[in-house]
């Protein structure tokens, strides 16, 4: 028992970094961040209700520069992520190219599938809001925090809209140890489902606009993808067109050519001098794709750094353990992140982070100290970029 505790102490001392979580879903838990063992939480915004909460939480636990660790290892920090989640994408209308103000029922009939004929259901949904206006607010929020990410954004082919008012079930309370009494409104947790989905074309418009803002500001992304890895990859690929790195073959051909100079005359990568048109770093959160799908994200020609983050809740539920083991083995050591994906800060979050660190270390064959160091380095590189840290 002592040996286990000591090993865990070493992990906490090195530092634990949650790459993706939602504690603003229970605002009453935010005060508990100060007493957590985890050093930094990367907190996602998802919908209209939580954008200001994430901002206020980040103001409360500010991480001002990349020297944070050297200065005060006992402090706790929050890195905010601002974005609009695909589960709420129907609440936005796309007025980026055209100045439109759609009627509520018309809008929802356009973006939901199958087309609902239940006007009562559509009128009970929130009034849809402008994508253009949201993007402006998003840019302002990102400007306040130099290390803020764009997230949680993405595509989800399997979710359906909930029906009726938000409510947590007894099961969910037990799982997380959190009380539901102060649950932030707007969540879809614990509600019966309607037959309606958000059309994938609409989801794509909402996510693309946010990817483009991340590219413009050169911020990392935290991406939610369910049955949509191919589509996410296509979107990223369309953004980095012309910036691909040379493939191994091209590299070799250039080296072999007469008068070749190392690092020059590659047929691709011609735009390397300009500011890149794609987000520099991307985290595929609670990555659920098969090992094969990793290959395209990790191809040598891909100019963005793609990370894969794993959580106990999503990735190590009984049904998927074998799959995730193979995926973790296939992800390069320097591209793995860990996360709780939990909606409540405190001891449960610490425990879930510790659990997933143990599991990743076991699969990778790392000892705990080595694993904790690697995961720390990965998180720092994902947030701050490749610039050397003090
Ligand atoms: Zn999430």
Automatic annotation (TrEMBL):
Region described as Disordered: 164-194, 244-278
Pfam families for this protein: TatD_DNase
GO molecular function: hydrolase activity, acting on ester bonds
Domain of life where this protein originates: Eukaryota
Ranges of Basic and acidic residues composition bias in the record: 172-191, 267-276
Protein name as annotated: Cut9 interacting protein Scn1
